[in-house]
Amino acid sequence: MTRSANRSDPRPAGPVRELSAPKLLLLHGVCYLLVLCYVNMFDFWAWLSRMLGPGQAVRLLPVAVTALLLLIIVQRFVDRVRRGYSIDLVFLGLGLVFAIFSLALPDPAVPIKRIHVAEYILLSFLVRATLSHRLQGGQLTLFTVLVTLLWGIHDEMLQGLHANRYYGWLDMIVNGTAGLSGALLGHGLRCCLREQVRPPKTQGLVGLITLFILLGASSAWLVTMLYQQRGTPFSLTLFLPQLAVGLLLVFLRPDIVFRSRVQHGFQVVFWLACGLLLYPLVSLFAGVKFV
After folding, report:
1. What DSSP element (H or E) covers 2?
2. Residue 174 domain-assigned (yes or no)
């Protein structure tokens, strides 16, 4: 149920120029830098865990950080209600439920890993703000979920190359559910509304969705085979499905792949999904062990 307001959401006073493609690319780069920051904070969290010891403090810290972030979001919600702007209580409630669910997923033996929940809720808001320059409404929320999920997979693959980390399933799931939580919270708060952004009109949508289902399947294959082959030389079958689908999309839908104003959500998903190939290739050609 959406709480309607006496006032509409704030709109620009005059014409607003659309963000250029290079600036949009820069914002996506900031998202990647944040992921790199998360990966390289391992030493800090390990040090903090040792300082806090095995007691309740280390268990409560990531929960407290997540609670603080959610408190800021709730404050934003209260502020919008007081000012008379519209919010969506159902999506806000679902976002909070998934945040709590995400906190319950990490290995209880390593409680500091719950910090991923706060990290990926925060990242999802940055992703939403970035995508909002080309998408709005349900598409914005859907692609916020998908893009944040893909960033979470990139996070894990970076860990596979990191000397002190490892590639695993559970953190990937936590990253994804926390990103879903953030996307739902952002939708509920109706963040990043931009009146000047028009819904993209995509030709051949059924065929495009079919191609992206294939891309999703090949990405799942890559993620699964990487886990099975980690620590060993990678086989050629690891790369072929993702490479084949990627080339097929470039050949059949270059408008989607190379133009941000056609369907930016699909474009970002394409490049992030195909970018997953970089990590096993780095391992293969640079001699870095992927574990």
Report:
1. strand 2-3
2. yes
Q: Cα angle vertex 270, ends 199, 170, to 5°? A: 110
What global pTM score does this model have? 0.91
Residues 171, 51: Cα–Cα separation, whole Å: 23
Contacts by 142-146, CB closer than 8 A, 24 or more apart: 142/265, 143/264, 143/265, 143/268, 143/269, 144/179, 144/182, 144/183, 144/186, 145/179, 145/180, 145/183, 146/265, 146/269
Token code pair at residue 279: 């990590």
213 shares a domain with 167: no
93/174 same-domain check = yes
Distance, in Å, from the CA atom of 155 to the CA atom of 172, rounded to the nearest integer, reads: 8
Q: What is the DSSP string of 146-176?
A: HHHHHHHHHHHHHHHHSTT----HHHHHHHH
Of 111-120, 196-205, 207-216, 276-285, where does mean pLDDT reach its minimum? 196-205
Number of domains making up the chain: 2
In contact, 143 and 101? CB cutoff 8 Å: no
Render pLDDT for 180-202 as a digit per residue (tens, 0 to 9): 999 999 999 999 989 888 888 78
**Domain housing 106:** 19-198
Which residue from 188, 202, 76 is spatially nearest to 135, judged by alpha carbons?
A: 202
Distances (CA, A) of 211 to 251, 265, 272, 287: 12, 14, 15, 33
